[in-house]
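Entry type: protein chain
Record version: 2
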Amino acid sequence: MSASLASLSAHLPRLSASRHSTIVVTDTLRSDAFPCLHHTVADSLALESTLTLLVCVSTQLSHFETVAKKMGYSIARNKQFTAIDAFPHIASIHSKNPSGPFTSIPGNPLRSLLETIQNTFSAAKSKDPSLRQCNLILDPVSEWVSLGERVEDVAQFVGECRAFVVREGGSLAVFAHEDVETREHAFLVNFLLDMADFTVRARGLESGFTDSATGQITIHSRPTATSPATGVESKQLLYHVSESGVKVWVPGN
């Protein structure tokens, strides 16, 4: 494990730590949570018999792979990793704009995306019978609202995704931007934070930017019916991103 991933894994919640957990990661324009995203993917890939399924909107996989290599892991030719571009599904709202609960409407873009996720895992299990669970990573769902999806549909979609991973024995990680100032985005972020077993909130430094730290991270975990206490405590962290990698530490250490 690289120094960057070791530093992240020592402090951040891990999908591999417990089944059926939901991790919500939020960031801002001043503090990109991309290190948390790569930590989550790399941690999931370390699990046996698990498909890591990344659903993204604006991520170019070639760039993602380049950053992954710098972080010390690889997604290239990994049979336990697959990615779905959500943009074609979401972009179709400009020609299809059904109203009502998305799960009950044929042709609804998010219903189509949910079915694609389910079918992708089923196909992966058919090719590799050793796969027994699916860890699903959604990045970033806040952009879906910006692209025109109804916030109620996005919230219901995330809930359906959580039910899916619970059925399949896996966990869910959801990423969102928190500093988009609209009522719809605020509703979505609050919904995600309320449903999470673990929250990871990346922020700029209260004292402003310094050469030694890029931003701060607040982590909170709570016991739930689906995820009992796993030993991760609420805490404050600092992190620094440089050309050589990522470092995370507890203030004062």
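Comment: The beta strands are 22-27, 50-56, 81-85, 133-139, 172-177, 198-203, 215-221, 235-242, 245-249.
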